[in-house]
UniProtKB/TrEMBL annotation:
Catalyzes the ATP-dependent conversion of 7-carboxy-7-deazaguanine (CDG) to 7-cyano-7-deazaguanine (preQ(0)). This is 7-cyano-7-deazaguanine synthase. ATP binds at F10, S11, G12, G13, Q14, D15, S16, T17, T18, C19, L20. Binds 1 zinc ion per subunit. Zn(2+) binds at C187, C196, C199, C202. The gene is queC. It comes from the Bacteria. Pathway: Purine metabolism; 7-cyano-7-deazaguanine biosynthesis. Gene3D superfamilies: HUPs (3.40.50.620).
Amino acid sequence: MENNKAVVVFSGGQDSTTCLFWALEKYDQVEAVTFDYSQRHNEEIEVAKEIANDLNVKHHILDMSLLSQLAPNALTRDDIEVKDGEDGDLPSTFVPGRNLLFLSFASILAKQVGAKHVITGVCETDFSGYPDCRDIFIKSLNVTLNLSMDDQFVVHTPLMWLDKAQTWEMADNLNAFDYVRQLTLTCYNGVRGDGCGECPACKLRRNGLETYLQQKSEVNS
């Protein structure tokens, strides 16, 4: 496609920040969109603002507070415990319809700003079982978005088949390893950088980091 402008769905976390660096290397023009859905920590939005400003990326923040009313969960309610799913259930952090809505609104924004590429950090390898992170869902939605607006968007998922160690490797290859490690917010308890170390998101991030550093050490030894 000749169009070389992209919109990145951006939360200020490890995955979306890695995708932002990926997009900045690949596209001539990049804009970021962050969704305010009354998430557990407003710190997430502040981190996204700071990173977008630091990287000189035009940043849009869209009000999606209706999502927290429709789908109460551990990311939007302080009285719901953050925990992994048991006996085949989804984790308490799953927000039904989140990626469906985020990608739909990101594509509407892309239409308005003249971008044909929409980038999201969803991943089917380390995805906690979230159904809206699956490759089949993204491909299906991509077709639907194009039909709904009679356009030719491409939804890119650079992390789809990467585990967390490989995502750290990608950040390193983009010369963004320290930036992502120190300045992003992945933690469900709102702690920047390496996080609280106890919540599921921090454990996944730390395990991937330790695996990557070990692999890198072995290669260099």
